[in-house]
Amino acid sequence: MDIERYLRDHIRTVPDWPEPGIQFRDITPLLQDPKVFRVLIDSFVHRYMDPALRPTVVAGLDARGFIIGSVLAYELALGFVPIRKKGKLPFTTVEETYELEYGSATVELHTDAVKPGDRVLLIDDLIATGGTMMAGKKLLEKLGATVTEGAAIVDLPELGGSARLKAAGLPLFTLLDFAGH
Nearest-CA neighbor of 120 among 97, 101, 144? Predict the structure, then answer.
């Protein structure tokens, strides 16, 4: 089975959403079919079972990174850490603000979410501009953890996020990209 093609065939493209000219890559069909969802998760599990790549904790970015990250952490018998939008976590937090096309956003992490020396896999559904993943990386590093890799289902390289993240020293792994599509 060509896993990349199989997964790509189950990603819905919604034209002109949330605004005209945007081709939104919707991953919800990947989650709706149990076989497709298992292929998706297993693709990540097999990679991170490798001792050289194995993290000590998985961190997921709000909100679709929670879906993939928590299941992946469970399958790897690791803890899961949510990186949330500002104001959603009830305990003491650290925060990181990043720029969006129109304004800025802030993400937070509990101060006891990771400890110095943790090897963290940072995961989201998609890499677009890279702002959220970069903010997540900075948060984890503030607490002394090392982000060993950023991972996502989809890369949209034309938006420059993956290049920006790699230039900042973050190794990336994605299952497929939509370059030029």
Answer: 144
